[in-house]
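MODEL INPUT / OUTPUT PAIR
PAIR INDEX: 1
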Amino acid sequence: MEHPSSLAGRPKRGYVRAMKVKDADILFVPDHGGAGPLHWQSRWQPRLSTARRAQPGNRFDPRAEAWVGSVAEAVNAATRPVILVGHSLGVAAITAAADTFRQPVAGAFLVAPPDPEGEDAPGWLAPFGAYPTDPLTFPSLLVASRNDPLCSFTVAEDLASAWGSLLIDAGQAGRIDAADGYGPWPEGSMAFATFVSRL
């Protein structure tokens, strides 16, 4: 994985200080099936004082309207700028909800987006539709694997380019979940901390 010191480029002109976790509401948006206790999202959340999780209804039977609505509701109820942390289906829900955000979103940390138009796309992904192709209105970082069974690296590169996201190549990392050995995921934690500090 790329060293986190290179993740967000140079500070913007007028830069005053780094954002800290306490300055934002950290919103985790999990994958289909949720994030179990060994998943990196579940390990990170208790260590972040302002973190909470979007509750998208039935996590094993994802309905696009409910998942997208839960993300929009959580963002719009925030009292501080929001930093979104999405994994897999969570990325689809975040990008689908982005146009409905009424509260400021400071940034989004997006991991392993599934390709809804891929040959191996699961049935539960299709109702979320194709990804938006317009740039996101907030800074974003996309972490992608080169052997992700649900999204080719080429598609991930195209998404990052369309969204204006910084792309991190995670190498041969599968779905970047606990089943693929990404439970604690210290490299991801470092990348996230650096991303937040540059917002």
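PAIR INDEX: 2
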Amino acid sequence: MSTLLKTSFAVLLCATVAISAKGQGVTDNIVYKSEIYYSQGSYAVLPIATGVETGNQVNLDGTARFVTGFSFNYSATDLSIGATADVKFYDATGVTGTTSDALTLLYDTKTFLIGNSTAKELTFNQTDLLGGFAGKESMIWTVTFNYTSGNAYLIAGTPVPTIGGRQSDYVTYDSTTFLHVYDTGTTGNGYQGSFAATITAVPEPSTFALLGLGSLASMALIRRRK
């Protein structure tokens, strides 16, 4: 077997293994992580009114952009039965100011039931995300809590994310305009402007497809020359 053929076969094999591993979720890569921020044994929270879309603008680490998982932390007390949470992701490419025009929706999750809890992590795995979606280097994620009574809170994340980056603010959305809310630590027991959340991603499926097609083309060309 020629060196070129061996190389092509190796690339194709790696691509096949990567695709198989992706389906099992073992290649998931954390591209953003802001852990719960504790100060003197407690954590800061921000009360979120029912129906108010609230979240963060985040910058993903590395190059993987096909989002396969997401989680965030929240607390809730005395919630009405049937309370829900809906998470959305938007393209935030080029967004740097305090306000922005309506942005492109990248993905809208299914609605999840939520209940009373302290520092609960709500996780959306690849199945929940219907296989995943094509994200962007800069995204805005939001959550909308819907309830008729009680209280819901988002939990503050570390001032500097352990993986990835963010603006020193949080965002709200009224269906037409995003508002970046700059917080100096006066709200919610020293709230720092970010929420505890994790995003995982893998390379775009098209990357694997191109690798496979390139390898097959190389092998076909070699066979024709022989």
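PAIR 2 NOTE: The two ends are 12 Å apart (CA to CA).
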